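Section 3.1: Structural characterization of target chains.
Under the original work plan, the team committed to producing a structural model for every single-chain target entering the pipeline before any wet-lab resources were allocated. The record below documents one such target. The sequence was received from the expression subgroup and is listed exactly as submitted; it comprises 143 residues.
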Amino acid sequence: MLDEIAASYYTPDYDLNCAETIVHAANEAYQLNLSKETLHASAGFGGGMAVEETCGALTGAILVLGIMLVQDRAHENDKMKETVADLLRRYEKRKGTTNCKILKEQFREEDPVKCKVIVMEAAEVLEELLSEEGFSVKSKGTL
């Protein structure tokens, strides 16, 4: 379901980058009630942090994991570190890499689709991990 909500945000009407799409979708799906400023904080993670390194959809997912898993600080326990590593391993197993440049070369299509398949896969992996942590999608995509 998170992937369906993400798909509704990854459109020309919203014009969000990959990281923003994941964060906006998770905000809606899990009813996180994130502030406008927090949503905007994800903008710089798009395009592999603007240098085509780690995929923006994944860094957006990591931001969501931090919001949902960390009570006070990440060093409270190893859960955050383990879950982030698991996110990246699972994604790499499915797509072969977490690198934005390589993903775009292999999967990016022309407008308006762009990196949709990349973003949807990140949303699926994020939802799997969150489900394993006991979180469930609360919204069915009510845009």
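Helices lie at 2-9, 18-29, 36-41, 46-52, 56-69, 79-95, 100-107, 116-132.
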